[in-house]
Amino acid sequence: MLDFTELSEDGIEFEQMIREMLFALGYKVFWSGAGADGGKDLICFEEHKSIFASCKRKWLVQCKHKAISGRAVGVGDLGDIVGACRHHQCDGYLLATTTYPSSAVISRLEGVAADPRDNLTTGCWDAVELERMLSTAELWGIAQRYLPESATGWKIYASERPNHWTANYRGYYFHIVNRIGSECMAHLPLIDDELNRLEWLSREKFPEKHFMRLRSIYFDDKSGCYTLYADYMHPFDSKPVMGNEEFEKELEGEWNVHYSIKVRDYLEFSDHYDPDHYDFYDEHMGKFLLGLSR
C-alpha cells in the first residue's frame, strides 16, 4: 500500500508527482500559477483524435495534499471552481487529493457538472484512485521516485509479446526484451548490478544534474549477450562530459554486456520535460525490440 505521507507537507512534491503522471500518460501539462491556497494549479490538454472530428479539452487540475493531516478535502479548500475554470478558459476540472473528498465536495462537483450554464466536466482522483494508477507499468517508476519507502521492489508487466516486458525498479522505467525466450527473471541480478554502475558513474564522474537513465535491455538468447540502452542526460546549457562512443567504452564490462548510449540535452523547467518522457522511448522501440544499435 502506498504511503502518501512520504510526500512533503507543503504539497509541492504532490503537485510535481501529478504533473509527471499526466506527462507519462501522454498529456500536455503546464503550470497555471499559484492557486487560492498558494499552491500551483496545473493546466492539462486532452486531445481525442478521430477520422470524423477531433476534439480537445482543457483541464484545470487542483492538487490537495491532506495525507499528513488525514483530513478530507472540504468545500472551503476548493475556492471558486467555476470562476477559476473561466479564468483559465478550461472546460474540465480535476481534483487530485492524497485523502478523499468530503460528501459536500462530491455534491459540489456533481452540481457544477450538471449545470448547463457552466458547461464543465468534473472529476476526482482520490488516494485510492491514485494508488490504482500508480501501480501500473506506466506510472510505477514515478511512485518509486516520490514514495521510495512504500513503493519498493520490482514491478514487471507482461506485454502482448511473450518475450517483452515493461519493468519499474528503483525509480527507473525500462523495457526487457529477449530475442526468443519467454522468461525474464534470470536477468534481474545483472540489471541490478548495471544500475549500480550507472548510478556510480552519475554520482562520481558527472557534474550536477548530469545523469544516466536506463531505457531498455535486450538479451540475445543465442549468443548470451546483453545490450543495454541508456541515455546520458545533461542540461541544455551544459556541455556533455563525453560522447556516445566514449560512454560505451567507459561502460565496457563483462564480455557479454554491451551498451548503446544516446547523449541528450534537456530543459529542466520546460513544461514538456520529464526524465522518462515517452519521447525517449517511442522513437526507438523498434530497435529495443530487435536489439539494434541506436
Automatic annotation (TrEMBL):
Record key words, sorted: Endonuclease, Hydrolase, Nuclease
Domain of life of the source: Bacteria
Name this polypeptide is given: Restriction endonuclease
Keyword Hydrolase belongs to the record: yes
Biological source species: Halodesulfovibrio marinisediminis DSM 17456
Gene Ontology BP annotations: DNA restriction-modification system
SUPFAM superfamilies: Restriction endonuclease-like
Keyword Glycosyltransferase: no
Membrane spanning stretches: none
A GO term, aspect molecular function: endonuclease activity
Annotated ranges, domain Restriction endonuclease type IV Mrr: 10-101
